Amino acid sequence: MEKINKAITTVDASDYIKLLEKQHDIDLLTKKNDSKDHYLMLAGSCGVLLLVIGWLIWKNAQHSKRKKLQLEDALALVQKRSEEKDRILHIVAHDLRSPIASIMMLSNVIKKSDNKEETDKVLQYMHTACNNSLTLIAEILGAAESNNNENDVQETIDVDKLVNDSVELLRVKASEKKQTFNLQLNDKEKFFIANREKINRVINNLLINAIKFSNDNKQITVTTSAENKRVQIAVKDNGIGIPERLKDKVFERFTKAKRKGTMGEPTFGLGLSICKEITEYYNGSIRFESKENEGTTFYLEFPRVDPPVFHA
Questions:
Q1: What is the mean pLDDT of each run of 10 residues along the chain (312 residues)?
Q2: What is the 3-state secondary structure (H, E, C) of the chain?
Q3: What is the CATH number of the domain that holds 69?
Q4: Would you say the pTM of this structure is higher than 0.70?
Q5: Domain coverage including residue 257
Q6: In a shared domain, residues 161 and 301
Q7: Total number of domains in the chain
Protein backbone atom coordinates (compact mmCIF):
# COMPACT_ATOMS: atom_id res chain seq x y z
CA MET A 1 0.00 0.00 0.00
CA GLU A 2 2.87 2.31 0.82
CA LYS A 3 4.40 1.65 -2.58
CA ILE A 4 1.09 2.24 -4.27
CA ASN A 5 0.55 5.53 -2.35
CA LYS A 6 4.04 6.70 -3.22
CA ALA A 7 3.37 5.92 -6.89
CA ILE A 8 0.05 7.83 -6.86
CA THR A 9 1.61 10.80 -5.09
CA THR A 10 4.45 10.89 -7.61
CA VAL A 11 2.00 10.77 -10.54
CA ASP A 12 -0.21 13.49 -9.05
CA ALA A 13 2.76 15.79 -8.45
CA SER A 14 4.03 15.24 -11.98
CA ASP A 15 0.61 15.99 -13.47
CA TYR A 16 0.24 19.05 -11.30
CA ILE A 17 3.61 20.35 -12.43
CA LYS A 18 2.61 19.82 -16.09
CA LEU A 19 -0.69 21.57 -15.42
CA LEU A 20 1.14 24.54 -13.94
CA GLU A 21 3.46 24.66 -16.91
CA LYS A 22 0.46 24.68 -19.28
CA GLN A 23 -1.26 27.35 -17.22
CA HIS A 24 1.95 29.40 -17.36
CA ASP A 25 2.04 29.01 -21.16
CA ILE A 26 -1.61 30.06 -21.38
CA ASP A 27 -0.88 33.14 -19.24
CA LEU A 28 2.05 34.06 -21.49
CA LEU A 29 -0.11 33.68 -24.61
CA THR A 30 -2.86 35.76 -22.99
CA LYS A 31 -0.35 38.50 -22.18
CA LYS A 32 0.98 38.37 -25.75
CA ASN A 33 -2.57 38.62 -27.14
CA ASP A 34 -3.31 41.53 -24.83
CA SER A 35 -0.13 43.25 -26.02
CA LYS A 36 -1.09 42.62 -29.61
CA ASP A 37 -4.57 44.07 -28.96
CA HIS A 38 -2.99 47.16 -27.43
CA TYR A 39 -0.65 47.51 -30.39
CA LEU A 40 -3.56 47.04 -32.80
CA MET A 41 -5.62 49.67 -31.00
CA LEU A 42 -2.66 52.03 -31.01
CA ALA A 43 -2.06 51.39 -34.70
CA GLY A 44 -5.75 51.90 -35.42
CA SER A 45 -5.79 55.16 -33.46
CA CYS A 46 -2.68 56.34 -35.29
CA GLY A 47 -4.30 55.40 -38.61
CA VAL A 48 -7.48 57.33 -37.77
CA LEU A 49 -5.37 60.27 -36.60
CA LEU A 50 -3.38 60.20 -39.84
CA LEU A 51 -6.61 60.09 -41.84
CA VAL A 52 -7.97 63.07 -39.91
CA ILE A 53 -4.72 64.98 -40.40
CA GLY A 54 -4.73 64.09 -44.10
CA TRP A 55 -8.35 65.22 -44.47
CA LEU A 56 -7.57 68.49 -42.69
CA ILE A 57 -4.56 69.05 -44.94
CA TRP A 58 -6.67 68.31 -48.05
CA LYS A 59 -9.47 70.58 -46.79
CA ASN A 60 -7.02 73.36 -46.12
CA ALA A 61 -5.44 72.87 -49.55
CA GLN A 62 -8.86 73.06 -51.21
CA HIS A 63 -9.70 76.20 -49.23
CA SER A 64 -6.36 77.73 -50.16
CA LYS A 65 -6.94 76.78 -53.80
CA ARG A 66 -10.38 78.45 -53.78
CA LYS A 67 -8.93 81.54 -52.13
CA LYS A 68 -6.16 81.61 -54.70
CA LEU A 69 -8.65 81.31 -57.55
CA GLN A 70 -10.80 84.05 -56.01
CA LEU A 71 -7.78 86.31 -55.67
CA GLU A 72 -6.74 85.54 -59.25
CA ASP A 73 -10.26 86.34 -60.48
CA ALA A 74 -10.34 89.55 -58.45
CA LEU A 75 -6.91 90.53 -59.77
CA ALA A 76 -7.98 89.75 -63.34
CA LEU A 77 -11.13 91.85 -62.86
CA VAL A 78 -9.11 94.75 -61.44
CA GLN A 79 -6.69 94.49 -64.35
CA LYS A 80 -9.59 94.38 -66.82
CA ARG A 81 -11.21 97.46 -65.24
CA SER A 82 -7.86 99.22 -65.27
CA GLU A 83 -7.41 98.46 -68.96
CA GLU A 84 -10.94 99.68 -69.67
CA LYS A 85 -10.26 102.93 -67.82
CA ASP A 86 -7.06 103.36 -69.82
CA ARG A 87 -9.02 102.83 -73.03
CA ILE A 88 -11.69 105.30 -71.87
CA LEU A 89 -9.01 107.90 -71.15
CA HIS A 90 -7.49 107.24 -74.57
CA ILE A 91 -10.87 107.63 -76.27
CA VAL A 92 -11.66 110.78 -74.31
CA ALA A 93 -8.26 112.24 -75.16
CA HIS A 94 -8.51 111.27 -78.82
CA ASP A 95 -12.19 111.57 -79.70
CA LEU A 96 -13.00 114.62 -77.58
CA ARG A 97 -9.85 116.56 -78.41
CA SER A 98 -10.71 116.75 -82.11
CA PRO A 99 -14.25 118.17 -81.76
CA ILE A 100 -13.17 120.61 -79.06
CA ALA A 101 -10.32 121.83 -81.24
CA SER A 102 -12.74 122.12 -84.17
CA ILE A 103 -15.20 124.13 -82.08
CA MET A 104 -12.45 126.52 -81.04
CA MET A 105 -11.31 126.94 -84.61
CA LEU A 106 -14.85 127.44 -85.91
CA SER A 107 -15.63 129.96 -83.19
CA ASN A 108 -12.70 132.05 -84.43
CA VAL A 109 -14.14 131.84 -87.95
CA ILE A 110 -17.47 133.18 -86.67
CA LYS A 111 -15.72 136.08 -84.95
CA LYS A 112 -14.05 137.15 -88.18
CA SER A 113 -16.97 136.48 -90.54
CA ASP A 114 -19.70 138.91 -91.46
CA ASN A 115 -21.36 136.48 -93.87
CA LYS A 116 -24.58 135.12 -92.32
CA GLU A 117 -24.70 132.09 -94.62
CA GLU A 118 -21.14 131.16 -93.75
CA THR A 119 -21.85 131.72 -90.05
CA ASP A 120 -24.90 129.45 -90.15
CA LYS A 121 -22.86 126.75 -91.86
CA VAL A 122 -20.11 127.00 -89.25
CA LEU A 123 -22.67 126.89 -86.44
CA GLN A 124 -24.08 123.69 -87.93
CA TYR A 125 -20.60 122.14 -87.88
CA MET A 126 -20.20 123.22 -84.25
CA HIS A 127 -23.59 121.74 -83.38
CA THR A 128 -22.60 118.40 -84.95
CA ALA A 129 -19.26 118.37 -83.12
CA CYS A 130 -20.97 119.10 -79.79
CA ASN A 131 -23.62 116.44 -80.42
CA ASN A 132 -20.97 113.81 -81.22
CA SER A 133 -19.06 114.70 -78.06
CA LEU A 134 -22.19 114.43 -75.93
CA THR A 135 -22.96 111.05 -77.50
CA LEU A 136 -19.51 109.79 -76.56
CA ILE A 137 -19.87 111.07 -72.99
CA ALA A 138 -23.31 109.44 -72.70
CA GLU A 139 -21.92 106.08 -73.86
CA ILE A 140 -19.01 106.26 -71.41
CA LEU A 141 -21.41 107.08 -68.56
CA GLY A 142 -23.71 104.29 -69.73
CA ALA A 143 -20.81 101.83 -69.60
CA ALA A 144 -20.05 102.88 -66.02
CA GLU A 145 -23.70 102.65 -64.96
CA SER A 146 -24.18 99.21 -66.51
CA ASN A 147 -21.73 97.82 -63.91
CA ASN A 148 -23.37 99.68 -61.05
CA ASN A 149 -26.31 97.60 -59.83
CA GLU A 150 -26.75 99.34 -56.50
CA ASN A 151 -30.26 100.65 -55.87
CA ASP A 152 -31.44 98.55 -58.81
CA VAL A 153 -35.21 98.98 -58.90
CA GLN A 154 -36.89 96.13 -60.79
CA GLU A 155 -40.50 95.94 -61.87
CA THR A 156 -42.80 93.94 -64.10
CA ILE A 157 -42.47 95.45 -67.58
CA ASP A 158 -45.06 95.39 -70.35
CA VAL A 159 -42.99 94.62 -73.44
CA ASP A 160 -45.43 96.07 -75.98
CA LYS A 161 -45.78 99.37 -74.14
CA LEU A 162 -42.02 99.69 -73.63
CA VAL A 163 -41.24 99.03 -77.29
CA ASN A 164 -44.07 101.22 -78.56
CA ASP A 165 -42.88 104.17 -76.43
CA SER A 166 -39.30 103.78 -77.68
CA VAL A 167 -40.39 103.62 -81.31
CA GLU A 168 -42.60 106.71 -80.98
CA LEU A 169 -39.76 108.71 -79.44
CA LEU A 170 -37.40 107.84 -82.29
CA ARG A 171 -39.78 108.31 -85.23
CA VAL A 172 -38.58 111.91 -85.65
CA LYS A 173 -34.94 110.80 -85.72
CA ALA A 174 -35.75 108.15 -88.32
CA SER A 175 -37.62 110.72 -90.42
CA GLU A 176 -34.37 112.70 -90.79
CA LYS A 177 -33.27 109.90 -93.13
CA LYS A 178 -36.80 109.37 -94.45
CA GLN A 179 -36.98 106.03 -92.70
CA THR A 180 -40.12 104.45 -91.26
CA PHE A 181 -40.86 102.03 -88.43
CA ASN A 182 -43.02 98.95 -88.92
CA LEU A 183 -44.19 97.94 -85.44
CA GLN A 184 -45.65 94.41 -85.18
CA LEU A 185 -47.24 93.45 -81.83
CA ASN A 186 -49.25 90.26 -81.43
CA ASP A 187 -52.17 89.75 -79.03
CA LYS A 188 -50.26 87.71 -76.42
CA GLU A 189 -49.46 89.31 -73.09
CA LYS A 190 -45.72 89.79 -72.71
CA PHE A 191 -44.16 90.72 -69.37
CA PHE A 192 -40.75 90.29 -67.75
CA ILE A 193 -38.94 91.66 -64.68
CA ALA A 194 -36.08 94.17 -64.98
CA ASN A 195 -35.09 97.77 -64.44
CA ARG A 196 -37.22 99.76 -66.88
CA GLU A 197 -34.69 102.54 -67.46
CA LYS A 198 -31.84 100.15 -68.29
CA ILE A 199 -33.93 97.98 -70.62
CA ASN A 200 -35.20 101.13 -72.31
CA ARG A 201 -31.56 102.06 -72.93
CA VAL A 202 -30.97 98.68 -74.59
CA ILE A 203 -33.96 98.99 -76.92
CA ASN A 204 -33.14 102.61 -77.80
CA ASN A 205 -29.58 101.61 -78.63
CA LEU A 206 -30.76 98.87 -81.00
CA LEU A 207 -33.24 101.24 -82.69
CA ILE A 208 -30.66 104.02 -83.04
CA ASN A 209 -28.19 101.55 -84.55
CA ALA A 210 -30.85 100.43 -87.03
CA ILE A 211 -31.37 104.07 -88.04
CA LYS A 212 -27.65 104.79 -88.15
CA PHE A 213 -26.67 101.82 -90.33
CA SER A 214 -29.64 101.97 -92.72
CA ASN A 215 -29.77 104.11 -95.85
CA ASP A 216 -32.45 106.68 -96.60
CA ASN A 217 -36.01 105.57 -97.36
CA LYS A 218 -35.56 102.19 -95.62
CA GLN A 219 -37.98 100.47 -93.26
CA ILE A 220 -37.09 99.23 -89.77
CA THR A 221 -39.28 96.39 -88.46
CA VAL A 222 -39.76 95.94 -84.72
CA THR A 223 -41.53 92.77 -83.57
CA THR A 224 -42.55 91.47 -80.15
CA SER A 225 -43.60 87.88 -79.47
CA ALA A 226 -44.04 85.34 -76.68
CA GLU A 227 -43.20 81.66 -76.83
CA ASN A 228 -43.65 79.35 -73.83
CA LYS A 229 -41.60 80.88 -71.01
CA ARG A 230 -39.77 83.54 -73.03
CA VAL A 231 -40.61 86.94 -74.49
CA GLN A 232 -38.75 88.23 -77.53
CA ILE A 233 -38.06 91.64 -79.08
CA ALA A 234 -36.65 91.73 -82.61
CA VAL A 235 -35.25 94.81 -84.40
CA LYS A 236 -34.70 94.26 -88.13
CA ASP A 237 -33.10 96.79 -90.46
CA ASN A 238 -32.25 96.79 -94.15
CA GLY A 239 -28.87 98.39 -93.71
CA ILE A 240 -25.22 97.71 -94.42
CA GLY A 241 -25.08 94.49 -92.37
CA ILE A 242 -22.12 93.08 -90.44
CA PRO A 243 -19.20 91.41 -92.29
CA GLU A 244 -18.26 87.88 -91.24
CA ARG A 245 -14.83 89.00 -90.00
CA LEU A 246 -16.43 91.35 -87.46
CA LYS A 247 -19.29 89.22 -86.13
CA ASP A 248 -17.38 87.75 -83.18
CA LYS A 249 -16.23 91.22 -82.08
CA VAL A 250 -19.60 93.00 -82.07
CA PHE A 251 -20.25 92.70 -78.31
CA GLU A 252 -16.72 93.56 -77.18
CA ARG A 253 -16.14 96.78 -75.27
CA PHE A 254 -14.39 99.38 -77.41
CA THR A 255 -14.74 96.88 -80.22
CA LYS A 256 -12.74 97.25 -83.41
CA ALA A 257 -15.90 96.28 -85.28
CA LYS A 258 -17.22 99.84 -85.00
CA ARG A 259 -18.07 101.56 -88.27
CA LYS A 260 -19.55 104.91 -89.21
CA GLY A 261 -23.22 105.19 -90.09
CA THR A 262 -24.53 105.64 -93.62
CA MET A 263 -24.40 109.43 -93.17
CA GLY A 264 -21.07 109.45 -91.37
CA GLU A 265 -22.59 109.11 -87.88
CA PRO A 266 -19.82 108.31 -85.36
CA THR A 267 -19.64 105.00 -83.47
CA PHE A 268 -17.59 104.57 -80.31
CA GLY A 269 -17.77 100.79 -79.84
CA LEU A 270 -19.55 100.79 -76.47
CA GLY A 271 -23.28 100.53 -77.20
CA LEU A 272 -23.70 96.82 -77.91
CA SER A 273 -21.37 95.75 -75.09
CA ILE A 274 -23.58 97.74 -72.70
CA CYS A 275 -26.68 96.09 -74.20
CA LYS A 276 -25.21 92.64 -73.61
CA GLU A 277 -24.21 93.36 -70.00
CA ILE A 278 -27.61 94.80 -69.09
CA THR A 279 -29.56 92.04 -70.87
CA GLU A 280 -27.61 89.19 -69.28
CA TYR A 281 -27.85 90.79 -65.82
CA TYR A 282 -31.64 90.35 -66.02
CA ASN A 283 -31.30 86.69 -67.14
CA GLY A 284 -31.89 87.61 -70.77
CA SER A 285 -29.96 86.96 -73.94
CA ILE A 286 -29.04 88.97 -77.04
CA ARG A 287 -28.02 87.65 -80.45
CA PHE A 288 -28.12 88.74 -84.08
CA GLU A 289 -28.37 87.52 -87.64
CA SER A 290 -26.76 89.57 -90.37
CA LYS A 291 -25.73 89.57 -94.02
CA GLU A 292 -23.42 92.22 -95.36
CA ASN A 293 -25.21 94.84 -97.50
CA GLU A 294 -28.58 93.20 -96.75
CA GLY A 295 -29.29 94.07 -93.11
CA THR A 296 -29.20 92.90 -89.52
CA THR A 297 -31.75 91.58 -87.03
CA PHE A 298 -31.09 91.76 -83.29
CA TYR A 299 -33.05 89.51 -80.92
CA LEU A 300 -33.62 90.19 -77.22
CA GLU A 301 -35.12 87.45 -75.04
CA PHE A 302 -36.18 87.51 -71.36
CA PRO A 303 -37.90 85.06 -68.99
CA ARG A 304 -41.65 85.55 -69.24
CA VAL A 305 -43.71 86.30 -66.11
CA ASP A 306 -47.40 86.73 -65.35
CA PRO A 307 -48.84 90.25 -65.63
CA PRO A 308 -49.07 92.24 -62.38
CA VAL A 309 -52.31 92.04 -60.40
CA PHE A 310 -53.89 95.38 -59.51
CA HIS A 311 -56.13 95.47 -56.46
CA ALA A 312 -59.05 97.85 -56.31
A1: 68 67 75 74 83 87 85 82 67 63 73 75 74 68 60 87 91 90 88 91 91 93 91 94 89 75 78 88 94 94 86 52
A2: CHHHHHHHHHHHHHHHHHHHHHHHHHHHHHHHHHHHHHHHHHHHHHHHHHHHHHHHHHHHHHHHHHHHHHHHHHHHHHHHHHHHHHHHHHHHHHHHHHHHHHHHHHHHHHHHCCCHHHHHHHHHHHHHHHHHHHHHHHHHHHHHHHCCCCCCCCEEEEHHHHHHHHHHHHHHHHHCCCCEEEEEECCCCCEEEECHHHHHHHHHHHHHHHHHCCCCCCEEEEEEEEECCEEEEEEECCCCCCCHHHHHHCCCCCCCCCCCCCCCCCCCCCHHHHHHHHHHHCCCEEEEEEECCCEEEEEEEEECCCCCCCCC
A3: 1.10.287.130
A4: no
A5: 155-312
A6: yes
A7: 2
